[in-house]
Amino acid sequence: MVQAVVLESVSKRFGRIQAVRNLNLEIEGGMVYGLLGPNGSGKSTTMKMVMGLVKPDSGRICVYGIDVQRDPMKVKKILGYVPETPCLYSFLTGLEYLDFIADIYGMDAEIKKAQIEEFLEAFELEGRENEMISGYSHGMKQKIALIAALLHKPKLLVLDEPLGGLDPKSARIVKNLIHKLADDGVTTIMSTHVLEIADAVCDRIAILYRGEKLAEGTSAELREKAQMPKSTLEEVFLKLTGTNDVKEIVEALLS
Ligand SMILES: Nc1ncnc2c1ncn2[C@@H]1O[C@H](COP(=O)(O)OP(=O)(O)OP(=O)(O)O)[C@@H](O)[C@H]1O
Ligand SMILES: [Mg+2]
């Protein structure tokens, strides 16, 4: 099996904060891999390091056998990224933006047009593509960012909280799309706080806490490891990350 992403003892510190600590991950090609963890646990930092946007202090990262530190441009060509808060050129129309991105990747004009049309239709954005992005809703911006990440058919898709602003139908479209891409061999790394989504979409999941990997496996394996085979992934997550005292916290807040 091809290893799509390998992290070996990767660490990253921002001043006093150890954002990622000695992290090892092996993600097989065609897999949908979920990063779960509370706020500030190092999910986004890990993803940014995989893409070469943040430089690790130590350790090594390879994407489809390419060393990210040594050959960052080669890696960027085969990946698509949707950040937590997509930063689009708001003075362009949706269509102009997608055209611009496709041109950066040097896509053929015919293929580009067909691909963009197909995606706009799938995400129910047709008819809105000639409006300025500044007038789009949050979810519409997210959809444009997702289309932009997919246009050049990446081998690795990195999605930071991809379903956050999407309505249920759009979220379902994205979930199905991720599965379909996985069938075609595309690897996806996604972070999410929504545990049902992780359960429904991800083949394997790593639970991060304060920059460290607490556990890794399929959602069934995580339940086994936590000795909670009949529990939901949410209960396992809360146990592993030490936040199963939620009830006490809420009571204290209201007292
Ligand atoms: N550029 C930066 N400068 C300083 N500290 C940073 C920077 N980026 C991340 N951090 C810190 O590193 C830690 C991990 O942040 P990160 O964004 O990776 O968390 P996360 O798991 O994605 O959280 P969230 O669920 O809130 O998105 C946090 O304590 C954060 O404040
Ligand atoms: Mg984040």
Spell out the blueprint of helices and strands:
Layout lengths: L2 E12 L2 E12 L3 E5 L6 H8 L7 E6 L2 E2 L4 H6 L1 E4 L11 H11 L4 H14 L15 H13 L5 E5 L7 H16 L3 E5 L3 H7 L2 E6 L2 E6 L1 H7 L7 H8 L5 H9 L1
Parallel strand pairs: 3-8, 3-9, 6-7, 7-8
Antiparallel strand pairs: 1-2, 1-4, 4-5, 9-10
Helix pairs in contact: 3-4, 3-5
Adenosine-5'-triphosphate binds next to β2 and α1.
Quote the distance from N terminus to C terminus. 55 Å
- The second-level CATH architecture of the largest domain is 3-Layer(aba) Sandwich
Please provide the count of β strands: 10
Low-confidence stretches: none
Helix content: 25-40%
Tags for this model:
255 residues, alpha/beta, Rossmann fold, 2 domains, 6-stranded mixed β-sheet, 4-stranded antiparallel β-sheet, 10 helices, 10 strands, 39% helix, 25% strand, globular, binds adenosine-5'-triphosphate, binds magnesium ion
Report on this model:
By secondary structure, the chain is α/β, with parallel strands linked by helices. A six-stranded mixed beta sheet has the order 6-7-8-3-9-10, with helices on both faces. A four-stranded antiparallel beta sheet has the order 2-1-4-5. It has helices at 43-50, 72-77, 94-104, 109-122, 138-150, 168-183, 195-201, 219-225, 233-240, 246-254; strands at residues 3-14, 17-28, 32-36, 58-63, 66-67, 79-82, 156-160, 187-191, 204-209, 212-217. Helix 3 packs across helix 4. The mean pLDDT is 89. It has two domains: 3-78 and 154-254, P-loop containing nucleotide triphosphate hydrolases (Rossmann fold), CATH 3.40.50; 86-153, no CATH class. It starts with a strand and ends with a helix. It has ten helices and ten strands. The longest helix has 16 residues, at 168-183. Bound molecules: adenosine-5'-triphosphate and magnesium ion. Magnesium ion binds at residues 43-44, 84, 160.
